[in-house]
Amino acid sequence: MSIIDKALAANSDYAKSYYPALGKRPAPKLAVVTCMDPRLSDLTGILGLPQADLDVIRTGGPAVTEDVLGELVVSTRVLGTKEILLLNHTGCGFTTFTDHELNAKLSASTGDASPAPMRFFSYKDPEENTREQIKKVRSHPWISKDVPVRGFVFDVDTGLLQEVRPLAHHTTA
To answer: Coil, strand, or helix at residue 29?
Structure first.
């Protein structure tokens, strides 16, 4: 039996005890942009918040792309989310290559370079990546300046969150 077939069988069991109230319109309080890494799947445990309070946006890296920005606009402007949490982590697979390296590897291994150059949003430093994400979200004109945007790095070895603050901009007189 394939993994998908096992998932379908499990879903049949799940549906027997499904709570229909979960199907009502969501009203999350916190939008979380995080990585697709399965080690970050237990966000209710990591953050200590109920699932209904979380609007989870998962992406590789986790990259704040134009699509993610659109989802954050809908989350804050349509669903009513009040805060945004950007959650990177240590040991991310996206730190193990560059976009150029992966494009070259995939072009060579498949014999088809037509998709290249694909943007994979690889990075090297989770803290710097978090700062860049905060800047992207904060600079979007449709995300209200009243919505707090904070970034964190989850340590996969300890389970602890470390807040990443944007660098202060110094002006010279």
So the answer is: coil
In the predicted model, is pLDDT for residue 19 greater than 90?
no
Q: 144: exposed, middle or buried (C-beta count within 10 Å: 0-12, 13-18, 19+)?
A: exposed
Exposure on the CB side of residue 80, measured as CA atoms within 13 A? 7
CA-CA-CA-CA torsion sign (72, 27, 10, 42):
positive
User: How far apart are alpha carbons 140 and 72 in whole angstroms?
Assistant: 10
User: Using CA atoms, how far apart are residues 25 and 28, in angstroms rounded to an integer?
Assistant: 10
Question: Of 21-30, 53-62, 113-122, 135-144, which gets the smallest average pLDDT?
Answer: 21-30
What distance in Å separates the CA atoms of residue 159 and residue 88, rounded to the nearest whole number?
12
The pTM of this model reads 0.88
Pairwise CA distance, residues 54 & 27, whole Å = 9
